[in-house]
Amino acid sequence: MTHPIRALEDQDEPALLRDQFRQLLRYRTLLACGVVVGLLGAGWLALGGEDTYTSTGEVSVRSATSDPFAAGASADKGINIGSERQTAVSDAVGTVAVGSLTKTGDAVDVGTLLAGLQVTNPPNTLVLRFSYTGRTPEEAKARAQALAEAYLEIRRERTENSIDNMVDGYRAQLKPLTEQRDRLAEQETGTVGNDVTSARANLIVSISELSQKISELRALDTTPGYLNKKPVAPEKPSGAGLPLLLGLGGVVGLALGLLLSWVRLVFDPAVRSTRELVRSLGAPLLGTLPRERAAAGPLLAIGRGGSRLAEEYRAVAFRLAYDPSFTERRRILVTAPRGDNDMATAAAANLAAAFAEMGRDVLLVEADLRAPSLAGALGAVGRAGRPSWAAERDGRGWPSDSRTNVDVPGSGAFTLIAGRRTDNVPRALTSAPVSRILAEGGRPGAVVIVLAPPVLSYADAVALIDRVEGVVVVCDPREVHRSDLERIREIIGAAGGSVLGTLLHPGYGRLERRARRKAAKRRGRSRPAPPDGRDGQGDAETDGPDRADDVAHTGDPTQTLGLRTLDSGGRGGSDHSSTAGHR
Q1: Which pLDDT tens digit goes with each residue over 43-57?
Q2: Domain locations along the chain
Q3: How far apart are CA 518 and CA 529, in angstroms?
Q4: Cβ of 98: how many Cβ atoms within 10 Å?
Q5: Which CATH superfamily is domain 274-565 in?
Q6: What percentage of the chain reaches a pLDDT higher than 90?
Q7: How distant, in Å, are the alpha carbons of 149, 540, 571 from that of 547?
Q8: Which of 304, 436, 511, 524 has its CB surrounded by the most CB atoms within 10 Å?
Q9: Could you tell me the strand order of the sheet in which 117-120 lies?
Q10: Model's pTM, two decimal places?
Q11: Cα separation of 260 and 38, whole Å?
């Protein structure tokens, strides 16, 4: 279990795409902003833009022919429809159309006229479609028709000019031949010779051919084409309507939101997926806690009725129990990356209760000597007063005089060694008593769980890794950075330990964080710090048996946890709690 889950590394491409898409959906705010921007832009275009009208006419293009009804005659002979499209949008056509429109009272320049024109060619046809967009239906109709007729006029003029030029050329060739024929005719009348007659006959043949070509050119049908579909005044404005624009705006906005989410994802230092967390930390995922525990709710979920949270803790405990690395040492260190250590505290306490429920002899050590809070969170805080370990009778100090027994209703009990504020934390954590306590994990059926401060905030966890070795990291995937996980893996590996796995918990919401701050302020007002600088947590041992009775009988009547004071050797003393269990 100490190696990354290979299945996550061997995912196929569709699985990776689904994972990346889920990561993009994390940024719902950016997606919503993109959609809103798209809808607003579409609404502005639909409601703020000026209505335009489009009128369309179709022109069938044909080439000049002498007999359109002859067999094999083709109307597309010599027509390049691409060149004709360019001619239709040329300034020459625009100039002719402007002249015709001016006569009807529509004064417009060529550039403005051609700006609203669009000429298209349906595939595999000799048809040009003239579409004109104007401010009014009448304007669109008149200008579309004027442009189509101007195109036909330009094409007719060009065809006729070509025929005239060719006829002039043939006539220029015919004139010298005619003159030479006349001279040969005069010579033939005066003399008799076969050479003159033959030359004159050849000239007559050439003249006949040229005359025939001129006659054919004059007989050509120069009709440039036909206006198959006359433009009509449109009844509705052109362009997409409001529903279509809103739909397009929503799609474009969603695409913009996905782009922004992708950019945010690329530059986001936080862990983007479970697969990335496993790869960065080099350890498998033990479980994911559901969002059930309220900000001011009880710390222990096990022993308070069935819930998803309790079952998830039990599943993690069973998974650790069958891990070869854990069963060899039976010691784990629970910590968080940085910041708030409350979820790591809850995880350590619930894992201790889960192992106790499995019949193990569990010892929970709170190694957070800078801000200890586990005893108070479990209900070990009595009346405000001087803590029992402050006296340090018979030279005993932390952790020797800090053992208490915690009952888990219906599940068993585990031993708690509560933390205490200490001036020299590194010396206390590396002391011989701590080593002897951690060595208790070597006894058959025993489990030692150590709760340490965040590993990146203090070096306390690093000081314990060489004697605990197995580490469980409790973190919120949305708050921890990939670089933090890689650094944690390097620190734990350099200290001689290994990461058994990761336990994910949901982050606190805004209201939950506010409730937690208020609860912390209330605890701070009700528990003033003592003059010697230590915390104000009490113990059932402060004032002897009477004090223990006060803790048992004056506490919260809804509290289901009880504490039993043990002597330094771990043997149970007199039970002063009405709900304490016997180990």
Answers
A1: 887 776 667 889 999
A2: 21-49+241-266, 53-66+75-229, 274-565
A3: 18
A4: 22
A5: P-loop containing nucleotide triphosphate hydrolases (3.40.50.300)
A6: 15
A7: 111, 6, 20
A8: 304
A9: 117-120, 127-134, 53-61, 225-229
A10: 0.54
A11: 13
